[in-house]
Amino acid sequence: QQPVQSPQAVILREGEDAVINCSSSKALYSVHWYRQKHGEAPVFLMILLKGGEQKGHEKISASFNEKKQQSSLYLTASQLSYSGTYFCAMVGVGSGNTGKLIFGQGTTLQVKP
Amino acid sequence: DTAVSQTPKYLVTQMGNDKSIKCEQNLGHDTMYWYKQDSKKFLKIMFSYNNKELIINETVPNRFSPKSPDKAHLNLHINSLELGDSAVYFCASSRGMASQYFGPGTRLTVT
């Protein structure tokens, strides 16, 4: 079953912060985050493997609450280059040995000057 | 020095035709995937190969057949193309079950 992302879309001014949430109805093995710009391939941002794990990537970080089967992506002091569609993708427990990613529906982020 | 490459980038064809998309990765990864992204940007796994062995085979019409001649290549052959096959097809690769790296995509248009 597909993870659910919220919000579906967000518009920011440069320098503002945003949070994108992702939740699953199934027990999770790992959570992956990707960003896709229009007409391009999804680009890997980070992977979270353990419950409660937080990872950072420049001004983009993420957390993973294994108990709640949720993950959040935090974008701080947003830049124009952050614009794009953000996808969470989850590997369910039981699929850990196949790496089968189930993608959320995406969150479109637009950063304006 | 492209990491994951696909050919062709664009493919326009008529219903009923057979076509192939090729994928190659030079990252030394052992696992490769095919994804389909529809017009609503929904990304769905189709197939995955690990060391040339099929490990993921989602509910995909049997008109779609993947072939992995070696660890660095994964091709997708589609028979009897239908209008609903129009989409962007992405190849990806990973080392084991780690992060996946996507190719540039092949935009397939069936008329």
How many strands appear in the DSSP assignment of chain B? Answer: 11
Rg of chain B, Å, rounded: 13 Å
Characterize the overall form of chain B.
globular
Average pLDDT rating of chain A? 89
Class based on secondary structure composition and strand pairing of chain A: mainly beta
Outline the biggest β-sheet of chain A: 6 strands, mixed
Q: If you compute it from the alpha carbons, what radius of gyration of chain A comes out, rounded to the nearest whole angstrom?
A: 13 Å
- Main sheet record of chain B: 7 strands, mixed
Mean pLDDT over all positions of chain B:
94
* Counted beta strands of chain A: 11
SSE topology string of chain A: EEEEEEEEEEE
Approximate strand percentage of chain A: over 45%
Put simply, the count of helices of chain A is 0
Q: Name the helix and strand elements of chain B from N-terminus to C-terminus, one letter apiece.
A: EEEEEEEEEEE
Q: Name the poorly predicted regions of chain A.
A: none
Q: Structural class given helices, strands, pairing of chain B? A: mainly beta
Approximate strand percentage of chain B? over 45%
Largest interface: A-B, 23 and 22 residues
Helix content of chain B: under 10%
Describe this structure in words.
The complex is a heterodimer of chains A (113) and B (111). Chain A is mostly beta strands. Chain A is 0% helix and 56% strand. In chain A, the strands form 2 sheets. In chain A, strands 2, 4, 5, 9, 10 and 11 form a 6-stranded mixed beta sheet that branches. In chain A, strands 1-3-8-7-6 form a 5-stranded antiparallel beta sheet, with no helix packed on it. Chain A is globular, with a radius of gyration of 13 Å. Chain A starts with a strand and ends with a strand. In chain B, β9 (87-94) and β10 form a beta hairpin. In chain B, strands 2, 4, 5, 6, 9, 10 and 11 form a 7-stranded mixed beta sheet that branches. A 4-stranded antiparallel beta sheet of chain B has the order 1-3-8-7, with no helix packed on it. The termini of chain B are far apart. In chain B, 0% of the residues lie in helices and 57% in strands. The chains are: A mainly beta (113), B mainly beta (111). Chain A binds chain B through residues 30, 32, 36, 40-44, 47, 85, 87, 89, 91, 96-103, 105-106, and chain B through 31, 40-45, 48, 55-56, 90, 94, 96-105.
